[in-house]
């Protein structure tokens, strides 16, 4: 979508993050996020929040691409300022999980 199209619908939809450039898979069909350094993940997450801030000043949520995450991604999400991150793992969610 173009910036003008996003501006037209921002009063109706809430834009949140799905990363900036990490929503891809590698040659083995694994989320590329899993092979990146914590520094690169944090840079990408922060860039995504900045890009979306023009449409929503409260970019607090992150969806891990393809459900893939690891300890580096969780730490980077916290450092980037996200309040909540979601994945596609099956099962029940428990406090602290």
From TrEMBL:
- InterPro entries (UniProt xref): Glyco_hydro/deAcase_b/a-brl, NODB_dom, Polysacch_Deacetylase
**Keywords, A to Z?**
Hydrolase, Signal
The reply to whether Signal figures as a keyword in the UniProt entry is: yes
Listed under GO biological process in this entry are: carbohydrate metabolic process
Q: Which Gene3D superfamilies match?
A: Glycoside hydrolase/deacetylase
Which superkingdom, per the lineage?
Bacteria
Per the UniProt record, one Pfam family is: Polysacc_deac_1
Q: What is its EC number?
A: 3.5.1.-
* EC primary class: hydrolase
Gene Ontology molecular-function annotations: hydrolase activity, acting on carbon-nitrogen (but not peptide) bonds
Which parts of the sequence belong to the NodB homology domain? Answer: 1-97
Protein name (record):
Putative polysaccharide deacetylase
Provide the species name: Escherichia coli
Phylogenetic classification of the source organism:
Bacteria, Pseudomonadati, Pseudomonadota, Gammaproteobacteria, Enterobacterales
